[in-house]
Amino acid sequence: MGWKSLDDMELNGKRVLLRVDINVPVENGKVTDATRIERIAPTVADILAKGGQPILIAHFGRPKGQVVSELSLSVCLSELETTFGQPVTLVETLEAAEAGTLPAGIVLLENIRFHTGEEANDASFAARLAALGDVFCNDAFSAAHRAHASTTSLAKLLPSCAGRLMQAELTALEAALSTPKRPVGAVVGGAKVSTKIDLLLNLVGKLDVLVIGGGMANTFLGAMGASLGSSLQEEDLHDTARDILKQAESIGCKVILPVDGRVSRAFAAGAEYEMVMLNADTKLEDGQMILDAGDAATALIVKEFKALKTLIWNGPLGAFEIEPFDQATMASAKA
Description:
The chain is α/β, with parallel strands linked by helices and 335 residues long.
């Protein structure tokens, strides 16, 4: 094990910069699913039990370096306090955090992506963050692959460890990839290839089967020649997608892309959709969007799952936050 956990750290009297993922779904100003908040509770509790002060660093949405009031983490405060069973203080600006002594108890820094230095992985910005703490603890596994200031750089500037959620994920990954029971497969989904290029390139060499879903699959389908209307994809990464497919083919990793999809003209709960076959010849109209893998694609994925001895899963197969575009993800997960 090449990483440290909370058990390896002396935290008494220390300020612990805790990177978390609380990018939760919100509707009408209320958190509709607190799962991500609940999953960081053990780490917060352990830091407090060891005499440390948790200073939470998190992002919410994609403000792109601008202060966007609708993306304030204040919307999470009530749920955080309910989950932790104690008050949480929101510090609204980095300047306010730097100006004097931070409040006692659990502290939440405002949306870290309000700062351009975060996603740019700016060294001076990372140094400002590091000055607020004594120890860095990363419990945001879902954001750990991003080379941002609050992930990559802080880990280099402060004594660092994994939180309980990160620890569990790393332990499972080590078991799955170091000496996996074969055949081994992975699901890599989500919105963008750009956020998971390194993950894809790393996994291809270790897998027998790679299932690509979500908006990422659209980029691969587009790279193959499909015209996908208004579907989310990254056209500037078509060459990268083709390279990944070639690499997979050369080493015998079977890549599964959706053979059909739920196509709608509205990204909304309860929206009407039609099932459309997906391949290099697919031609969707402007306004049409692939929002989920279809029934045939799901059946193919489930069939592949049944032949696997080890499965790693990272990201959904569609817009799983809203019905009816959660169907492929849920059906595959239950298989």
